[in-house]
Amino acid sequence: MGYSPGTMTLIERIRNGFSVPEVEHVAQYEHVSVETVASGILEGTIVIPSNPLHTCLEPRGVGKGLRTKVNANIGTSSDSSDINVELRKLAACIEYGADAVMDLSTGGDIAATRRTLIAACPVMFGTVPIYQAGIKAIDQRGRLVDMTADDMFASVESHAQDGVDFMTIHCGVTQLTIERLRSQGRLTNIVSRGGAFLTGWMLHNERENPFYEQFDRLLDLAREYEFALSLGDGLRPGSIADASDRAQFQELILLGELVKRAREADVQVFIEGPGHVPMDQIVANVQLEKTLCQGAPF
Fold first, then answer.
1. How far, in whole angstroms, is CA 74 from its chain's centroid?
2. What does the pLDDT read at residue 6?
3. pLDDT of 192 strictly over 50
């Protein structure tokens, strides 16, 4: 059967019996059957982050029954924002076998950096859109807390239009999880930059997290541009002293509920985590995530 790009999500193409080149490519790379990959995607235990606008991408699968994937983080800062340096970092990532690269830029021309890197990146490309939204608010309005919900979603859409394959978005940082954090108390508090941005914004404006409150709006963007959602662990423990506390698991409970909604919308979704945990808690953390998030890749 033929297929016209942009008319259906990858999940819908599989369900409707279309030939899906991304699935075939991953199956060949992993030395498994097409049926194995396709069924994993329909179950939500496998994801193939692949924005059609990322034209030089060689698709890779992440999840159950597939080889472990390695992600490498690069990006500019206020101290260093040379695109040639970033391109050399990207080349090193590819040379040494990274399966995915994330651009975590916070300095210089963030949009131009992202577009240049995507055009040169043959592996899965990820970003954290709240970084750019926050930096832009500081530049234009003087304070991160003056960022608007529309600013946040505009950043997501601009990243999608540039071809980003997956985005880490901290949808589980809510008023409820912040209250759990307050009642728990921590040695290292919030170590996630995106989680800290959103927490500061929520406390200052006395409002709910727009990414949680307007999750359907986020799903609409993910469907339209075919990027995968990496639900961020904004309240992950930053030290083993804070591992497996109420704030971490409250966020994970909410993410499990959002995984269900994403799957109902035919949006590919996986979970970032779990942060710094001692060796004897790793298995329990993975098992809990698999249970709460219905087998979503972790």
1. 15
2. 54
3. yes
Among candidate residues 195, 188, 211, 224, the one with its CA nearest the CA of residue 258: 211
pLDDT of the residue at 204: 98
Tokens of 46: 């496998």
Residue 52: per-residue pLDDT: 96
**Residue whose C-alpha is closest to residue 127's, from 176, 161, 177, 172:** 161
CA distances to 62, 128, 279 from 230, rounded to whole Å, are 12, 9, 24
Contact 114, 159 (CB under 8 A): yes
153 close to 217: Cβ distance less than 8 angstroms: yes
Pairing of strands 71-74, 269-271: unpaired
127, containing H or E segment: strand 124-127
Longest dimension (CA), the chain: 57
Residue 100 pairs in a beta bridge with 71, 124
> How far, in Å, CA of 165 to CA of 118, rounded?
10
Q: Kindly tell me if the per-residue pLDDT of 214 is higher than 60.
A: yes
Q: What are the distances in angstroms from CA 46 to CA 26, 69, 84, 259, 273?
A: 11, 12, 34, 13, 16
Helical H segments across 148-192, by residue range: 149-161, 175-184
Q: Indicate the average pLDDT of the chain.
A: 96
Residue 59 contacts by C-beta under 8 Å, 6 or more apart in sequence? 21, 22, 25, 26, 48, 50, 124
Using alpha carbons, list the distances in angstroms from residue 291 to 87, 142, 287.
Answer: 39, 43, 6
